[in-house]
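Subgroup meeting minutes
Present: P.N., E.W., G.H.
Scribe: E.W.

1. P.N. recapped why we're keeping a running log of single-chain structure predictions: easier to compare across weeks, and new members can see raw inputs and outputs side by side.
2. G.H. added today's entry (136 aa).
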Amino acid sequence: MSEIDKLLEKWHTLAPEEEGSFVKDSIEAFNSKTDSEKEKFLNDFQEEAKKACDEAEELIEVITMRDQLDPILPYISLSTIASEYFGKSRNWLYQRINGNLVNGKPAKFTADEKRLFRNAINDIINKLQGVKASLG
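Output recorded in log:
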């Protein structure tokens, strides 16, 4: 476990009134390190911060997709979309739309699957427009 992980683990156990002294103690501990130890710590910190940002971006993407689909979900069959366009189950599609954990990682669409999903939505739109036109 990295030093960053240990600090985060400790941080999550703190009561709000303990946070200030923890930060102060952590800064003092950092200042007592050698230059090479500081450099390693800062590199590890940057790496962990990048991972956190990447995870946040993925979460934003999932939430955005879900919000965009929310108004139409009651009117379309995700089972049909999953099977006819992806050859997969409804659960598979829901996992990607909702970013559910699968094997410990959030499920998400690949770039090709996103493109296929957009094409499926366009195909459904075209079918609805054809029905609309025929109803005159």
